[in-house]
Amino acid sequence: MAVVAALVRSAFLVNTVYAEASRAHGLTPQQGQLLCVLMPQPYGMSELGEMLGLARSSLTGLVDRTVRRGLVRREPDPRDGRAVRVGLTDEGDRLAHGFYDETCRRLENLPSGLNTNERDRLAALLARVVLDNKVPELFTDPHA
Q1: Do 45 and 60 touch, CB atoms closer than 8 A?
Q2: Residue 73 forms beta bridges with which residues?
Q3: Over 90: is that where the pLDDT of 90 sits?
Q4: Are 32 and 22 in contact (CB under 8 A)?
Q5: What is the chain's Cα-based Rg?
Q6: Helix (H) or strand (E) holding 51
Q7: Cα 43–104–126 angle (5° rounding)?
Q8: Are residues 31 and 62 in contact, defined by beta-carbon separation less than 8 angstroms?
Q9: CA 54 to CA 22: how far, in whole Å?
């Protein structure tokens, strides 16, 4: 299989797993992404837009819907009185960790046919592709 086809099919596979884990937790995939991004700390709207690759109006709608669910809150930005940051509520934090753990468990099973050396090599190659393309850190280990 050529690299382009492999990357596209891999992305489809990961997106499917992500969507399944989202549904299992009563989230949309976008809400799951938002919660995972916010696990380490609150972020400003412009930072979130860049990290998630969303236009301002799309991000505002996503945050509004997630606020209504009681999973995130807007808070004043201590560095800029005109700006707000978005952070997890206690319920959002609980749900984010459950979603994250479930997604990791499901993703961990995808390369189950590979031995340890092959898995390590795959991880190293994917890490290089991600770093070379300056992909934002969207799904980092909150336990690390």
Answers
A1: yes
A2: 87
A3: yes
A4: yes
A5: 17
A6: helix 45-52
A7: 85
A8: yes
A9: 19
